[in-house]
Amino acid sequence: MGNRPRFYHRGRIENLAAKQEYSKLDRYLDRLSRKGFDIAGVPFQLLDRLLEKQSKHQIESALPLARHTLGGQPRLLTAILNDLINSSSCKELRKIVRDSTAHPMTRFEAMGWTVFLRHRSAFPEQGEKLQDLFQFWDKDPPLEIQQAQKLWTSKAQNYVDYDDASAHDFILEKFGQDVADMYSALWHPALKSDVFRLCRLAKCGGLYCDADSRPGSLLSKFLQHAGNKVWASSMSNVPNCVVTNGFIAAPAGARMIEDFLDEVLRNIRDQAESGIFWLSGPGALTTFMYRNGSKYDVGLLSASCLKSDLFRQFDADYKKSEMNWRVFEYKRGLNNNAGLANALSPT
Asked: Which of 47, 69, 120, 337 could pair with 73 in a Cys bridge, judged by C-beta atoms 3.0 to 4.6 Å apart?
């Protein structure tokens, strides 16, 4: 892997992208690559911003940038751009998903991009008010989490904080003993958090935000207008464009939330070897939306919109320990294989 582009390189890239001079940018990236700089991530980072202000001409001009990516990504990026130009059916992306000769991860990435392009939405400018904002931390939140929670409290008129005990009590009251017992038996706080947020959204609605994050300047506006449907975000700045569940809003009784909760509980019962990402996290949500998304009214915000205006995660110290589900699963030898195979299996 080459060196990262320097500050002045990034400034030049930003300037050419802002001017929509993609032919010049293509040649500039070529020069940087020949000098040994790693520019493979640049096209997808630019794509995230291109989605905000797109025109057919701009998208066509950006097509040559795909060659600067790696592995199966040139085909993936070309399919994304062509589907943006030609239709909302995501024909080219769906070809990749169905192509058993393509790398499995490229096929899953195509699934994620298909979901995003089908459901991408602008920031809500009108609509009903969300009931509240809630968060979860199982027990004894460290100081940096407590400080972040105070920021969220200051931004939301109605803020509710749950721990393991209060989440269990909520599930017991609203869903009964069997689901409460299942919750109690879950083996990691991240998995409990995934399940609880869906239970809480299904019954009460609101906005759930991961506790290891800080609010953006437009959060209050979002809370005022996002109460009519389900909202989430996609990682539209990287090839692996999964639907994330760290920021998710819904009205009470949203069918999509109820159905996804049922799916998650089935996953936990039947596919525990898959790992949390695939059981209840972004892998599960992306797979569910690809298979069922046409049934629901869901708005997906771009990564740039989420990070600049609403929600930005920070590098909390706990992520170095087994409190981080990735560290927990890595130490137990879990990998993506089982979950990825299930995601790509025909339904």
From this structure: 69
Q: Which two tokens stand for residue 107?
A: 């096929």
Task: Please state, as a whole number, how many other Cβ atoms lie within 10 Å of the Cβ of residue 135.
Answer: 24
- Phi and psi at 301, nearest 5°, equal -85, 150
36-68 confidence digits (pLDDT tens): 999 998 999 888 878 876 677 778 888 888 999
Chain centroid to CA 171: how far?
A: 25
Phi (first) and psi of residue 249, to 5 degrees = -130, 155
pLDDT category at 102 given cuts 50, 70, 90 is very high
Indicate the pTM of the whole model: 0.94
Single-letter amino acid, residue 94:
R
